[in-house]
Every structure is written in structure tokens, then in C-alpha cells.
Backbone:
């Protein structure tokens, strides 16, 4: 659902689609390295032209910079001992995001929690893509009956709610930390990425250069590793930003219902849960981490749209 | 067509068995059991009797087979913690509320999302379009717990409107949770409808309809809208998953005694048969919904049938 063609600029998309197609074909004849750099340069040029995507990319990088750097330079301890004289203060010069129910600086906690939330987000996205690549590559590459069965399985599982399975996985481990969260969030979320990779592999398989490689006797792992998978890279980069919002929300939901990251450690979902308890007197405490989540998701969506237009306008999740 | 439908139904059965097997396998990995908690140690003999009563002493495949037979006859087994209650009782008591919440949220999402998407496609690149798309982009990104909290904060605390902030009884108590749960899917539908409508508007048959002098309203109603709504049907599957996930949070916030809230309670109480029963139930609902959507899609758009059959 994330991948709907929201930012469609109908004709523009069509035009660039043809662009990439012909680029591929011509370059395959002309030879490797030159084509590579042209494809990425073209993509970069197209991306830069998309103002919404560039803005989103810049904000995204600023958020990353903030969560990495701010805990180092901040004068406050994110897990400081409670100081109830400072509790639930609204935003001020000393505390730009205000303070939480224990008088701790929310800006610092947002940065520290962001490290956890974004870290889990990227790690789980990576795990999802790894499983998706493995499943999709096998399914698309082998083809035939196996592909048919593997795809029917995906069709049937599509849209399975990940939350119950994530909760069960956390119960199995018995402890919640970054790594168990990553496994919990990726175990029932890889169906879409598998589908994307499989679609891409099947399309690529029909290309002449793959046939040529086979004709000169390349083994299957060489065809797959050298010709097919590298060419799915563009789709995978898009997929990172398609999967990220779901995973970040997943972490937030789990922590919010009290089954995820637990105090005193901060994550955006856990901070929202703490804010939830005092929203009547201090609504900013739940608002700050939620807006952080929303900003990141919004940026990821625009970046994904921009990347899709730039890298591969034909790919649309169906 | 019949062949397509039969095949699609036929494919669903092994997947349901597989999902039950996976859930079953996962549940068995959880350490500790509800009878042997450190707080209340019980004698060896009673422990063994309890295990025998619930069939926990038998090999896994027998347990699995018994469970599958149970599911097939709509019997999800006993609760391990609440004596004298079984999972069916819990489903019967809590599920209708969740179903109503999810159903109303889905209708809300359709009622808000489709017109919003249609208007912004027809008025593409006007302030109206930008406004609608801003709304749906933001609505899609905001986590539902913030939506719920903002609704309560402004509607109830600031504006003093008479909506209860907890429970699930009269219609007033249903307004806020339904909006909070439905806003995300509404935004997703708006984006989806806008995208597909822009694409449909460029099709040749639309130009033909215009060229033969059909009134624009009629073109929109008869050709554009109808063809643009097919993707909404396919989005129903993922939306269902989205609503189930969202209900875990929304039921918690509004203290609605539904499945999502009970699920969390059961996990904390280590009532594994309830956790498993509810997981299987939710999964089967999504899988069956997917099946229905695929079949509907096959009927609505015959081109997909051959590819998928």
C-alpha cells in the first residue's frame, strides 16, 4: 500500500521508463562499466530534479545527523535520575522539546531513542530484503512449478498481520533487545520484497545479455550473481524506503503496547507510551516522538517515490 | 472461471495448514509454561495431570493433528490459564467488538479516501489537489496513537464535546476510535485512487467516450471511477492486516475489550493456547479475505485470471 503511485506525474514517468529501457539495451551492446556510471548518473539527475524528493532526502539526512551527533554534544543525560522539579515542562530555550515525566531532556531522549528506532528500522529492513532476495531470486530464477508454488504461497500470505507473529517471537526469546526486535519485526514482513525481487529477476531473465551469458556456458550461479542480482540493486534501494516506514511503525506499536523496548531505555515508541500516561497534563511528551516517527515516514515515502521515478519507473507494487 | 476459483480455493487449504504448523512450532519454542510459574509452584503429580488433561504429554505431531482437527471444526481448544473457559468463549466475547471497530473503520476509510482521491485526480495540480494530497501524505505517516491522543485531547478535553474516551457501547463511544483507526487506510486509499484515476484518465477509451460526445459526468461515473476502483479491491487484503495491527493499539488506548487488547493480556499471562488460537484466527481471516479478493479481482478484471490461474 505504501507503494501506490501517489506522486504520479503521468507523462513524465512514462517518458523516463522508456529512457531506462533503451539505455539498458544500447549499453549492453556497448559494454559494461560505461553503462553503469551512466545509469546511476541519469538516475541522480532525475532525482535531483524532483523537488519533493530532494527536500525529503535532506530532512532525512538531517534527522540521521541529529540522532547520531546530538547525544554526544548534548549537555543532558538521557537516562538521568528523576528530577521532579523539572518534570513535564513545555518547550523552552533550555529544553527545546520540553522535559518528560521524570524531568529528563526530551530532545536528548528523542535523539537517543531515534538511534534505537532508526537502527532497528534499518537492520530489520536489511533482514527483510535479504530474505526477500533469497526467496524471490530462487522463485524467479528456477521458474516453472517451484516458482508457481512459491508465488501462490505469497499470494495467500499477502497482508498477514506481522504484529501477532512479532509478539510471539519476542515471547520465544524472552528478552527484548535490538536484535530480538529485528527478528520479530522481519519474520512476517518479507512477502512484498520477495515479490518485487522475483518480478525483477523474471523480467531480467529474458534479456539478451542473460541469454548470451548462458549461451557461452556461464553456470547458473554466475548468471544469477553476476547478471541478475546486481541489476536488481535499483529496485532494492527503492525497497529500503518502502519497507522502512512499516518497520519503524512496527517498533513503535510494539513498544507502545508495552511489549517492545522497555524503560529506562528510550525508543520512539517507548517514549510515546510514557507520554500516553500523562497526555492530559503534558501532551508534548507523546507528540514529540510521534512527530519524529511521522517525519521519518513522510520522508521515506517521498524518497521512495523520487527513487522510483529516477531508478525504475516501471516498478510499481501491485 | 470455475477452474480459477476452484484452484484458488484449493491453494488456500495447504497454506492455512502451513500457517497453523508454523504458529504451532513457534508456540512450542516459548520457554516456561503457565502451570509452572515460580510464584505458585505445584506438586509434580498435579503438574503431570494438568499436562495430561491438555494433551501436552503427547508427541508434537499428535498435538498438531488434534489442533488442526479442532480448527477445522471451529474449536480452538481450552484456555490454559482461565479454567473452564475455552478460546471459543474468548473469541465470542471479544471478537464482535473488534469486527465492528475494524468494519466501521474500513467504511470510514472508503467514505473519506475514495472521494478525496477522486477529487484530487480530477483537479490534478490545483490547490485542491495539493491540499488533499498533503492531508493524505500526513495522515498516512502519523502513527495512530498520536491521532487517537490528539482526538481525545482536542475533541474531548479542549472542545468539551460529549464523546467518551473509553469503552465500546453507544455510538458516541465508537466515533473517536473509528476515526483514529480509519485515518491511515483512508489516506492510503486516497493516494491509491488518485494514482489509478490519473492513469485511467489517459486511456484511449476515455478519449473515445469524450469524443463521441458523452457528457463528462457520465464518463467519470461510468468509465473512470469504475475502472479506478479495481485496485481498491486488491488493497483490501493489506488494509485488513493494517486494521488488525492498528486495533492492537487503538483498543488499548480507548480501553475497548476486543481481540487486540485481549491478545496482549494473554501474552503477558502466558496463556499460550489463547495466543495461538487468536493468531490462527487472525491469520485465517486474512488468508480467506485474500482468497475472496483474488477471486473478485479475477471476476472484475478477466486479464488477471490467466496469469494467476
Residues:
Amino acid at each position: 500500500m505504501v507503494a501506490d503511485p501517489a506522486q504520479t506525474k503521468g507523462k513524465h514517468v512514462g517518458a523516463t521508463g522508456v529512457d531506462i529501457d533503451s539505455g539498458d539495451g544500447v549499453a549492453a551492446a556497448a559494454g559494461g562499466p560505461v553503462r553503469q556510471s551512466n545509469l546511476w548518473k541519469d538516475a541522480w539527475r532525475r532525482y535531483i530534479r524532483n523537488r519533493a524528493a530532494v527536500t525529503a532526502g535532506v530532512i532525512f539526512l538531517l534527522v540521521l545527523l541529529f540522532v547520531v551527533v546530538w547525544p554526544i554534544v548534548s549537555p543532558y543525560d538521557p537516562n538521568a535520575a528523576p528530577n521532579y522539579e523539572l518534570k513535564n515542562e513545555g518547550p523552552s530555550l533550555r529544553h527545546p522539546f520540553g522535559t518528560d515525566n521524570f524531568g529528563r531532556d526530551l530532545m536528548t531522549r528523542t535523539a537517543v531513542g531515534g538511534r534505537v528506532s532508526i537502527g532497528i528500522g534499518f537492520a530489520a529492513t536489511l533482514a527483510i530484503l535479504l530474505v526477500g532476495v533469497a526467496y524471490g531470486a530462487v522463485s524467479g530464477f528456477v521458474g516453472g512449478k517451484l516458482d508457481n508454488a512459491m508465488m501462490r504461497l505469497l499470494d495467500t500470505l499477502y497482508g498477514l498481520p506481522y504484529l501477532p507473529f512479532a509478539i510471539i517471537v519476542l515471547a520465544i526469546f524472552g528478552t527484548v533487545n535490538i536484535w530480538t526486535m529485528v527478528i520479530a519485526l522481519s519474520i512476517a514482513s518479507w512477502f512484498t520484497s520477495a515479490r518485487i525481487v522475483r518480478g525483477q529477476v523474471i523480467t531480467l531473465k529474458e534479456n539478451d545479455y542473460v541469454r548470451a551469458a548462458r549461451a557461452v556456458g556461464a553456470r547458473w550461479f554466475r548468471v544469477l550473481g553476476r547478471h541478475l542480482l546486481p541489476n536488481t540493486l535499483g529496485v532494492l534501494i527503492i525497497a529500503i524506503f518502502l519497507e522502512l516506514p512499516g518497520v519503524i511503525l512496527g517498533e513503535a506499536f510494539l513498544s507502545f503496547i508495552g511489549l517492545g523496548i522497555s524503560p529506562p531505555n528510550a525508543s520512539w515508541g517507548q517514549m510515546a507510551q510514557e507520554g500516553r500516561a500523562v497526555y492530559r497534563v503534558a501532551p508534548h511528551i507523546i507528540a514529540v516522538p510521534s512527530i519524529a516517527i511521522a517525519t521519518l515516514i513522510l520522508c521515506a515515502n517521498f524518497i521512495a517515490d523520487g527513487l522510483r521515478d529516477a531508478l525504475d519507473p516501471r516498478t510499481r507494487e501491485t | 472461471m470455475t477452474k480459477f476459483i476452484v484452484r484458488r480455493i484449493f491453494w488456500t487449504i495447504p497454506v492455512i495448514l502451513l500457517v497453523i504448523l508454523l504458529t504451532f512450532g513457534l508456540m512450542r519454542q516459548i520457554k516456561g509454561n503457565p502451570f509452572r510459574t515460580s510464584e505458585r509452584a505445584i506438586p509434580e503429580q498435579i503438574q503431570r495431570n494438568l499436562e495430561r488433561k491438555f494433551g501436552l504429554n503427547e508427541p508434537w505431531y499428535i498435538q498438531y493433528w488434534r489442533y488442526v482437527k479442532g480448527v477445522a471444526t471451529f474449536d480452538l481448544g481450552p484456555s490454559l490459564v482461565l479454567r473452564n473457559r475455552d478460546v471459543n468463549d474468548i473469541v465470542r466475547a471479544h471478537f464482535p467488538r473488534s469486527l465492528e471497530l475494524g468494519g466501521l473503520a474500513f467504511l470510514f476509510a472508503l467514505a473519506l479516501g475514495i472521494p478525496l482521491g477522486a477529487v484530487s485526480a480530477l483537479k490534478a495540480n490545483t490547490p485542491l489537489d495539493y491540499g488533499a494530497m498533503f492531508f493524505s501524505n500526513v495522515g498516512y505517516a502519523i502513527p495512530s496513537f498520536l491521532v487517537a491522543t490528539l482526538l481525545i485531547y482536542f475533541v474531548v478535553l479542549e472542545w468539551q464535546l460529549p464523546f467518551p474516551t473509553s469503552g465500546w457501547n453507544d455510538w458516541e463511544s465508537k466515533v473517536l476510535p473509528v476515526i483514529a483507526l480509519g485515518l491511515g487506510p483512508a489516506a492510503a486509499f486516497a493516494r491509491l485512487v488518485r494514482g489509478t484515476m490519473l492513469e485511467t484518465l489517459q486511456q484511449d477509451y476515455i478519449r473515445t467516450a469524450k469524443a463521441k460526445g458523452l457528457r463528462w459526468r457520465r464518463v467519470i461515473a461510468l468509465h473512470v471511477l469504475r475502472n479506478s476502483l479495481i485496485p481498491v479491491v486488491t488493497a483490501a487484503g493489506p488494509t485488513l492486516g493494517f486494521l488488525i495491527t492498528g486495533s492492537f493499539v487503538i483498543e488499548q488506548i480507548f480501553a475497548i475489550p476486543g481481540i487486540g487488547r485481549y491478545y496482549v493480556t494473554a501474552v503477558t499471562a502466558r496463556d499460550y493456547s489463547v495466543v495461538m488460537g487468536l493468531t490462527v484466527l487472525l491469520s485465517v481471516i486474512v488468508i480467506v479475505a485474500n482468497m475472496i479478493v483474488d477471486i473478485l479481482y479475477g471476476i472484475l478484471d478477466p486479464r488477471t485470471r490467466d496469469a494467476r490461474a
User: Anything to note?
Assistant: Chain B touches chain A through 67 residues (CB under 8 Å). The CA atoms of residues 113 and 190 of chain B lie 4 Å apart. Chain B has a mean pLDDT of 83.
